[in-house]
Write a structure and sequence with these properties.
The protein is built from eleven helices and nine strands. By secondary structure, the chain is α/β, with parallel strands linked by helices. The two termini are 24 Å apart. It comes from Allomuricauda sp. MAR_2010_75.
Length: 313
Amino acid sequence: MGPVNGNATEEVKVLLDYIHSLDGKILAGQHSYNENPSSFYNKAKEISGKAPAVWGTDFYWNGKDNPGERIVKEAIDKYHEGAIVTLMWHVGQPKHDPPFSWRESVQGEISKKEWDDMLTPGTELFQRWTQQVDQVAVHLKKLQEAKVPILWRPYHEMNGVWFWWGNKKGKDGFVKLWKQLYDRLVNHHRLNNLIWVWNANGPRDIPGDQAYDYKDFYPGHKYVDILATDVYHGDYEQKDYDQLVKLAKGKPIALGEVGQLPRPLVLEAQPKWSWFMVWSNWIETANSPERVKEVYGYDKTITKDEIQFTNER
């Protein structure tokens, strides 16, 4: 099953083919905040004795300066060192200018009119949205020029209630936003180095903190290469896994973010996960050194030195 972008780079094709071929094995991954983009990646190696196969960070602009250049440099370095790169985007609402406040902008409410305007060409909010996307495209293009394929997972946890892009059901909801982003990056900016990772959250019915069924937010197989979900508290529910496998229909699935690592017993019961990525300091705060070593030492876990695909780097 090839990439959804028919013009995808050779590097994307090779990486996606490799992920399809994992056959019950899982890539170990680690996220770091962009202000120090190697810190927790190095911490995971320090604890486990092995470097993670997947390195990740976030284009979230919450400081004085745009972190894009720093992210590009680190992504190129990590790729040349042999790691797989995944990037995400905690972006503020288009009506706000960066840097973005977490509570007010990333997690703030967006009105129905603002949402509809953002998805309507010709409006001021649509123009501001395109400017946001164009800013991040500048950095993604530099990675394309460097021949770095990206596991790209924007607007994640969209089935939850906590981000401005979250809990928007229906054809004019999140699905429309995803397709609009895909069109802007692929067809307008000609970004062909992206593997499109649709990354939801594990469903839950906690009052005020709900995450709803995956299927209500899925844009369809024409716009998604890999389906992922986030699980933070060890609640690797078999029914949720089965639901994602069913929705994927043969496409790879992954654990885009985790807090507590999935134990080998979970991975035996849920063998289709392609990778996990521990969120930043949770490698220390939510996992004992023994658990980290247990999961990294599991015979089906792949670390950086065990990656088996070739791309000239």
